Amino acid sequence: MLRLGCKAIGLAALTFCGGMICGLLFPIWVVVVVETVLLILIAYCCLFRF
């Protein structure tokens, strides 16, 4: 079973990669909104789901 830190690092890396892809395709305000939503989702999952 993976530790919480490993899952958090994996989710953060996934968010970063998603943000980079959005940065190539969309204006900066879209990237900010997407990154904020994903980081809130990661925080929720790390605190309450894992």
What does this protein structure show overall?
With 50 residues, this protein is an all-alpha fold. The chain is built from 2 helices and no strands. The protein has helices at residues 4-25, 28-49.
Brief digest:
The protein has 50 residues and is mostly helical. The protein has 2 helices and no strands.
Overall geometry: elongated
- Helix content class: over 70%
* Rg on CA atoms, Å: 12 Å
Count the strands? Answer: 0
Can you tell me the residue ranges where pLDDT is under 50 for at least 5 consecutive residues?
Answer: none
The structure class reads: mainly alpha
Largest sheet: none
The pLDDT mean sits at 78
Please report the number of helical segments: 2
Distance from N terminus to C terminus (CA atoms, Å) equals: 11 Å
- The SSE string, one letter per element, is HH
Beta-strand fraction estimate:
under 5%
Question: What descriptive keywords fit this protein?
Answer:
single chain; mainly alpha; 50 residues; 2 helices
Question: What is the topology?
Answer:
Layout: H1 4-25, H2 28-49
Helix pairs in contact: 1-2
